[in-house]
Every structure is written in C-alpha cells, then in structure tokens.
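Usage

Read records sequentially. Each one opens with the input sequence:
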Amino acid sequence: MKSTASIGVAIHPNDGADPEELVRNADLAMYKAKAEGGNAYCLFAADMQARARSAMSLEADLRMALANEEFVLYYQPQFDVATNAIIGVEALLRWDRPGVGIVGPGAFLPQAEENGLIIPINEWVLRKACADARLWQRNGFPAFRVAVNMSPIQFRKKNVPLQVARVLSDTGLDPRRLELELTENIVMQDIDAVANDLRELNRLGVSIAIDDFGTGYSSLSYIKKLPVQRIKIDQTFVRNMTQDPNDSAIVRAIITLGRSLGLEVVAEGVETSKHLQGLRDVGCEIVQGYLLGRPAPFEDISPCIPQVAWRLR
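and closes with the structure output:
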C-alpha cells in the first residue's frame, strides 16, 4: 500500500510566538490539508483558529440536538404524471436549532460527515421516516413510498441491510413502502460490495433509487450492474431544460436510458408549469418540485396531500 503525507506549516513569528503555539497552529493546517484530500501541504491562516472553534461548537450543538430530539423531517411529495397520484414522498432532514429556527442540512451535515455524527443522525432519519410511514399506512393513506437518503459512511460500515431490516421490524412498516436513495458517489466507492448490499435490500422488499443522476459517473457500465428501480434526474438539468437545449437533451437521454433498462425516472426541481409540460412531452413518469408541493413536516403535509394531488390535474 502506498503511503502519503499531509503537512501543516506554521512560520515564526507571524503564526506563533512560542513553540507550543507554532505546533498547535501547524496541527490545524495539517488537518486542513487532510480535509482537502490529503497528500498535500497547507500553510496556517489566521482564520483557521476561528473555524476550528466554530466546528467544535457545532459538533457540541449537534450532539445536544441528538440528545434533545431537535431534528425534524420534512416531506416532499412525488407524483405519477399519468395518474396524478402521489406515489411517494422524500424525507428531508431539518434541524430546529434553538435560537436560530429551522436549519437546512447544508449548514450542518458536512460537519457531521467529518466527525462521524452522520451515522447516528442518519439512523434517526431512517427510523423516524419509517415510523411516520407506518402511521400513514395505519391511517389508510394510499400505498406510497417514503424515500430516505443514505450516506456513503453508512455503506462503508457494511451493515446497511441489517440496520434496515431491524428498523422495519421495529416499526412494523411494509418494506415495499421504503425506498433508499443513493448518490453515484456511494455506488462507485466499491461497486461490487454496494451491489451485494442492494440485492439484500431488494430481497427485503425495499426499493432503490440513484439520486442526482447525471452529475457523477452516470454510465451504463455501472447502472446495468445494480439492482435499482429508479433514477432521479438532477434538478439542475430540469430547471434549465426550457432554456438550455443541452440540458433538455440530457433530460431526454436519461428518460430514454431509464425506459430501455426498465427503470422508473423521477424528475426533481419541477418549479414551473413549463417544466411540468416539458417533462410530460418527453415521457417522464414521476415528478417532484416546488410547483407541486414544498417540503413540509408530517403534521402539515398529511392533511394537505389530497389538495397537492389536485393541483397536478
């Protein structure tokens, strides 16, 4: 195995007046080099201390958020274009941060990925989404799916099928009502191992979707090897498809690819009636976006589901 080095550099006197301060600041620079991919060097910068303190504070707040159940799930509906029926919802993580309010995942998930808190956070998301879906199932809602986003770190731990089976058993949710969304980056880390995990999940009855399709490795060489049921067109292509012929061509190509492989295709980012009509014209099967329904917490979206479905007609 090839060894590489990450080096942090601090220079006297600007970066420290004594050996202890220099070593401490060089250490901060080294971790910055590691965070940027490693096998590199990084010079200490004055704002590194402030960023390190901010990261430590955020980590402490995230641990408190887990303990105090400050996380909440919002759900965004997905619609079948042909029947106008809601066929699923995507579970989206939010943090009801004390003194701040509702915070989106972009503000805290990168830090959670770095410090390992992404594992308990994602476990909470999976369990909460399954529990909510079980309530919808018990209350007689249509048999739609709940989609949960997965982290690369979860697949590195090699226990995803076991974890999912345990949560399904604990919550009593019909496995056919659960969908797991993976990005292409997760798949390409170890395609054979991931494919085995996905086959086990399929055997449980859980469906699999590739999220943000078109932005990563998007190729037949991997998609044909994976037991997936859906691909989701990245919203950047959908949002620009009415102005940019290239994006329109990409959307059509992904839909054609999905159809040829027997996969359902979901288009994200549907924000205007032109987006919706354009997707109908090229044969897209499932749509999701602000035009049809914004993400909302469980108690808000449940009574609104019939109204949101009517708006698609």
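Summary fields computed downstream for this record:
- The mean pLDDT is 87.
- Residues 161 and 200 are 6 Å apart (CA to CA).
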